[in-house]
Specification:
351 residues; 10 helices; alpha/beta; 7-stranded mixed sheet
Length: 351
């Protein structure tokens, strides 16, 4: 019989057979690809180093060191999500409702921008959000101010973020908003619609949260000297919509909007020329040009008040006295809450 080495190709011996060497008792065992040989003379026992990361861990079966999968790169995930978002937008693979509301675009683009404003720039504190229903319709009625209607946008973003059900607020806007080419599209995409009873009742009938600011342009266009003094609520059309649908009314008071663009004067001739409800003069605009459009970093407080039920008054939707009294109750609730919030915030630009 031939010995174990007879008949072998000499080159194969050098290529596959590793000569066995007995290490010295105090010698460090040889490594192959980072793995200690298992069939060797036992060296003097030494304490094994504690693995410091995933690379030191071994795969089951002793086949070699395992390089564990590292957590996915945060920015890789963002880029992948962004590309998927663009693909859906370009292909039209997204949904809008009958009013043009685009929830995906609102969550991905508009709310992150507004979040920077209300959380970091205005340092907004929100309270009483438990008064907003978790589901079902409600009419959220707030005070209006600020020369530019940022308060409506800030309210919708803050409510969505702070509410446990992350509900969207469907804002009712003036006709002028929906006559402006770019602004109209943005308003529709974020859930806005024209401030009229038919649209309000349809939204409430669908179980949505609807936001309305009954002061209108009289609220956002008032002088800084009249700050936090509520203007007339019109003829109470918002109350009629709530009564016809039996929807609770949630008053909300917003402090902070009056200071972002303090309106010192209204150039009425120029406003008429430009067909605007007012032309503001603030400490920074038009003196500083486009730079004057940067809002001042005032401290904001938003408080939702307990809801006012209307289900027991559905038969009185056309009664002017009932409508007026209910509108006056909402207005007085907001005004008193504004006074309370102003006492909590003595410094308009404090922390």
């Amino acid at each position: 019989m031939s010995g174990p080495e007879e008949g072998r190709d000499p080159q194969s011996v050098g290529r596959f057979d590793v000569p066995q060497q007995v290490p010295a008792p105090d010698a460090e065992p040889a490594r192959r690809n980072g793995h200690r040989p298992t069939a060797q003379a036992a060296p003097t026992p030494t304490a094994a180093p504690t693995p410091t990361n995933e690379v030191d861990a071994e795969l089951p079966g002793g086949t070699g060191p395992a390089v564990a999968d590292r957590p996915g790169d945060h920015w890789d995930s963002k880029v992948a999500n962004g590309l998927a978002f663009l693909r859906r937008r370009l292909s039209g693979d997204y949904e809008v409702d009958e009013f043009g509301f685009d929830a995906e675009l609102t969550d991905a683009v508009f709310h992150p921008l507004l979040r920077l404003l209300y959380r970091d720039w205005f340092r907004t504190e929100v309270s009483g959000v438990e008064h907003v229903p978790v589901d079902g319709p409600a009419l959220v009625v707030g005070n209006h101010s600020g020369t530019v209607a940022l308060d409506a946008l800030i309210l919708s973003a803050a409510l969505h973020d702070k509410h446990p059900a992350h509900r969207y607020l469907r804002l009712l806007g003036a006709d002028l908003v929906f006559r402006m080419p770019v602004v109209s599209e943005l308003a529709r995409k974020t859930g806005g619609t024209v401030a009229c009873n038919p649209d309000a009742e349809r939204l409430l009938g669908n179980g949505d949260l609807v936001g309305v600011f009954p002061e209108g342009f009289k609220g956002i266009g008032k002088l800084y000297a009249d700050r936090y003094k509520l203007q007339r609520f019109g003829r109470g059309g918002f109350v009629s919509a709530a009564l016809r649908t039996g929807t609770p009314i949630v008053p909300v008071a917003i402090v902070g909007g009056e200071e972002i663009y303090p309106m010192l004067a209204d150039l009425k001739p120029l406003a008429r020329l430009l067909k605007l409800p007012y032309f503001p003069v603030t400490p920074t605009f038009p003196l500083l040009g486009p730079l004057g459009m940067v809002p001042l970093p005032s401290k904001w407080l938003i408080e939702f008040c307990p809801p006012i039920p209307t289900a027991h008054l559905t038969d009185s939707a056309d009664d002017p006295l009932v409508v007026f009294n209910l509108a006056d109750q909402v207005r007085e609730t907001i005004q008193q809450t504004l006074h309370t919030l102003l006492e909590r915030r003595p410094d308009p630009f404090g922390p």
